[in-house]
Structures are given as structure tokens and as C-alpha cells.
Amino acid sequence: MTKFQRFLFKRLAVSILLTLVAVSIIFVVLRLLPGSPFEALVTSGNLNQEQIDEIRAMYGLDQSIGAQYVNYLTSLLTFQFGYSILRSQPVWDVLEPRLINSLILLVPALVTTAILSSALGMYAGWNRGSGLEKGSIISTTLLRSTPVFITAIFFIIVFAYNLEVVPALGMRSIRATPDGYLETFVSLDFLHHYVLPFTVAVLYYSGDFLLLARNGVVEKRGSEFLKLHRAKGLSEMEQLARAGRNSMLPILTYFTLRLGMIFQGLILLEVVFSWPGIGRELVLAIQQQDYPLVQAAVFIMALAVIIANLLADVLYAYFDPTVSTNGGSSA
Amino acid sequence: MSTETKPEAELYERVDALWTIVRDQFAFLRRDPLAFAGMVVVAAFVFLGLFGPFLAPHDPIEYTVRGDANSVLRLSAPSADAFLGTTAYGKDVLSQFLAGARPTLIVGLFGGLGTGALGFAIGVVSGYYGGWVDEVLMRLTDLTFSLPFMPMALLLLTFMTPNIWLITAIIVVFLWKMPARVVRSEVLSVRERTFVRSARASGASNLRTMLYHVAPNVLPIGFLYTAYGVAWAIAAQASLAFLGFGDPTMTSWGRMLRQVFESGNMRVAWWWVLPPALGIAAITTSVFLIGRAYEEVINPEIQTDQ
């Protein structure tokens, strides 16, 4: 085995272990929750003890905690999420469209902002001390440090309430009854609802990319290889392109990490815009104590982050020859 | 070593040196106008957090503003009776705003300090010892990365009654990983430097080497992430309160925004939205601006030219 393969193998084993631990923590936390979603049914008095036992057995709640844990592990890891208690639908049928809704909002936003703000950040870093640099840093600092729901509220007040150019809530107008993803997403009505949350998401993500790109270029500016390029007679923009290419690695890994976190949705953004995404669904499920839905949603989110982490580490180790591949235990 | 004969003088010297370091660290505030402006906002915010509840003209929750003929003033625009108008429940917005700064300050301050301190300690230990200690601690940071913060916090807050100390603790438990990682990687490079090696060679214990030789050299980055921690904690607290998982006994800015959002009055009641929204935006941005100016000072690679 080469050194890189060994690193890959170890990293993979760690990720699997992490998944198991994360899943177990979710299980413990959920079992700590008081009451059960059936309490409302039971206290309503419409069920006799037999029926209650039957329902509990149906959801496996009559077994010992150890047996429940084993069941839980095997079903989660084989992606059998069970039935949502409140929506009486398979959990995956509830989550899948919500997850798609989140991804369709956030993936394009992340890609857009990664390209635009990295380019802007590199340009700003190259022109250090200019008005553009200062202005872009102040505005992105404002946008990334302000909690996203506040930015969203401001945008709604300005563009939806006062200028009335876009609707404030939802993903489609109430009267729309689209069938299937294609009909849902390919329509002017959708676009109309999409613009505002998309813009807020782009602005919210922009700060980190801009600063990473800017710092990267600032660090490269004095370095030897750029002196060579200048001596060769390359124009300013061509030099910037070389400097920028050399500061791509942190941006790439950061992008990968962010991509993993997108599976969490942007809970607050979705709540403010009533966007039917996975984050908003999770908040609703928590409020209504819908355990199967909650555990499936949190599992998907954790898994996405673990995979993205793995990917980022491997990318870094693969592309950056100065990174030691033995896990960083020595400097 | 001659210092062993006069432990007290030695101690004073160390405290003095540490104080000089801290003072020098803050010198950047005088040079960077943005950081200075941020400092002014932070000072105003701390003042509000300490004295806001006493300055509030009315009780933020109990008192109901009444107009002529003793009718409750609901959703009234700013007037002489209520300088910042009233809420849909007839409460005084100004009083809520003034009183609402305190939980934000408490969670921000202690959440940030806790995040910085815990992350710093773990980062130093992890980086200094390396080996299996490092392995275990870093996998622990991976674990907190993989458990999504917001959903886990919401879950924990559904079975424990939310109060500000619990919220502070949850924030620290989830955020210490950020400073820990950065501090650790700094320690990795400091650890191999000659002065650390000579300290070890002259018989200093691990604890002594860590405290006196390694830690002071990574302190600036610890400060930086403490500042960021404050901003993250404030944002997290406001977000939790906005989702309805805040301390139910206290008025906070996040809770004000929740109420105006839930009651569907965002369209009309700008006087109800703006004070808490601007308050949160101003304080988090200020803390970040200070942190960023400080980062320019301590990051030698960014300092290179200019």
C-alpha cells in the first residue's frame, strides 16, 4: 500500500466509526425526550389499551431498549427510515421532496457565490488598500456575521412588502398544483418565488469565500514565482490569474465542507421564507415530536457532513504535497 | 535557575509581561477606524446589557401601554406615549428593546469566552502531546462537526427547559471545535521551535512548557477566536429565540423578532422590527470587524507588504 492509500483507508475507517457514534448519540438524545407522540392519542380516550399496545408494537416501542437500538441501527444504515407518525407516510416520501427543495435552493446559490465572491476576493486582494477591497470586506462582513434570518427579514420588507416585486412566502403560489419535480421547478412562478431566498443565500455565503480568496492572494503577492511572472512580462491580470490559481485549494476544501452542510438546509432562511425545505421540516417535526422523521433527517444531515469532511481531507491531501498524509500527528 | 530563589518577583514579572502583551494586542484598535467604530458599538451594547433593564421606562412584559379612554394601544406607531411604538399585545417596544439586550449580552459574552477557553485548552493539549491524545481529541472535533448544531440544539431544548445558562452551555459544547482546530495547528508549528525544545531539555515539565512557553505564543489566535465565538454565540442565541426555543422568562431581541414574525405584523410594524434587527446586526458585525482587524495584526503572512 502506498502512503496515500493507507491515509485513505484510515480516513475511511474513521468516517465509518464517526457515523456510528453520531447515530448512537442521536438515538440517546431522542430516547431522552419526554412523552411520546402517541400521548395525545392515548389521552384523547378514544383508544382502549389493546389498540394502544397494537400501535406501540407496530412502531417497535414495546421492545427492550437494546433491541430498539439494534433495530434502529440496522434500519438507518440500510436507509429504511420507517413511517412518519404524524404524516402517516413513509419518512423518505416526506423527506425526499423537502431535501430536493433545499438542494435546489442552496446548491446553485453556493456555486454562484463560490465563483463570484472568490473572483471578487482575488481581485480585492490584488488591489490591496483600494476602496473596492475595503468596501467588499465591510459589506461581506456585515452579511456573513448578521444572522441570516435578519437579512432575510430586511429583504422581505424592502423587496416584497414595499417594492412588491416578489412574493414574500412559499415556493409556489397557493393556487399552483404542480405534478412532479419538472413541473414544480420549471416555471416562471417558481422563479418569481426563488429570486429572493436565492439572493439572500448567495449574500450570506459570500463572506467566507471572499475573505479566503483575498487572504490567499495577499499571501501570494510577495512570493518569488510571481516575481518571475512579472519579469517574464505578464500583464497584471495574468499575474493575478497565477496567484489566484495557487490559492484555490483552501477555497475548494471550504466549498466541499459547505456542500456537506447544505443537506441541513438553511433552517432560518427556510423558516422566514416558508420554503418547504428539509431544515424547516425538521423544526416542525421536532415541535410535533415526530421521532422517525427527526432521526432520519438528522442522520442524513450528519452523514452528508461526514462524507464532505472525508472528501475535503482527501482532496487536500491529494492536491497539496506539503500536507503530511499520516494524519497530522507530526508537524 | 536564578528565578527559583525569588518566585514572587518572578510571578510579578510574568504578570507584567502578560499585561504588556495584552495591551499591545489592543493597539490595533487605535489604528483601524472600522475596528474602533466596532469597539464603540460593543461598548454601547455592554452598557445596554448592564443597565438596559433599569433604563426601560416600563416593564417589558407586564406593562400594557394605554392611550386615551384607557384603551390598550395595539400596534401604534411611535408617539409620545411610546417612543418606539407598541407591539400587537400593547407592550412598549422601547422597554423590550432595552431589557432585551441583557440575555444577548450574557449568552454572547459567556458563550464566546467559554468557546475560546475550552477550544484553546483542547487545541494546546492536542497539538502539544500529539499521538493518541491528539487523535482522540481531533476525532471529537470531527464528531461535533458532523452533528448539525441547530437541530441538535433544538432537540436538547425540547426536553430541557430553556434558560440562558443552558443555551450558553449548548453553544459552547458545539462551538469549541473551531478555536480548537486552529489553535492546534498553530501549536504544531510552535512545538518544534528551539525555545520549546530547550525548555524541555532544561527539565521543564510538560505542564510548565505548555503554560509558559507554548500557550503565550498562540494566545493571539485564541483571542481572535474568542471574539468570533462571541459573535457566533450572539447569532446562535438570537436564532434559537427566533425559532421559539429561547428562555421563556426573558425578553430578548430574537424573541421580539419571533413575536413580530409570528403575529404577521412585519408588513406594517417597522418600529417593532427595526430596533431588535438592527441591534443584533450591529453587534455581530462589530465583533467581526474587530476580529478581522485583529487578524490583520497577528497573521504575519497577510502583513508581508504594505
From TrEMBL, chain A:
Its main location: membrane. Keywords: Cell membrane, Membrane, Transmembrane, Transmembrane helix, Transport. It comes from the Archaea. One of its GO terms (cellular component) is plasma membrane. Residues 99-312 form the ABC transmembrane type-1 domain. One of its GO terms (biological process) is transmembrane transport. It is a multi-pass membrane protein. The chain crosses the membrane at residues 12-33, 103-126, 147-170, 190-213, 251-273, 293-319. It is found in: Cell membrane. The keyword Phosphoprotein does not apply. InterPro entries: BPD_transp_1_N, MetI-like, MetI-like_sf. Belongs to the binding-protein-dependent transport system permease family. PANTHER family: DIPEPTIDE TRANSPORT SYSTEM PERMEASE PROTEIN DPPB-RELATED (PTHR43163:SF6). This is Binding-protein-dependent transporters inner membrane component. It comes from Natronococcus jeotgali DSM 18795. The lineage of its organism: Archaea, Methanobacteriati, Methanobacteriota, Stenosarchaea group, Halobacteria.
From TrEMBL, chain B:
It is found in: Cell membrane. Keywords: Cell membrane, Membrane, Transmembrane, Transmembrane helix, Transport. GO terms for cellular component: plasma membrane. The keyword Flavoprotein does not apply. It is a multi-pass membrane protein. Residues 101-291 form the ABC transmembrane type-1 domain. Pfam families: BPD_transp_1, OppC_N. GO terms for biological process: transmembrane transport. InterPro entries: BP-dependent_transpt_permease, MetI-like, MetI-like_sf, OppC_N. The chain crosses the membrane at residues 34-56, 105-129, 149-176, 218-245, 269-290. Belongs to the binding-protein-dependent transport system permease family. This is Binding-protein-dependent transporters inner membrane component. It comes from Natronococcus jeotgali DSM 18795.
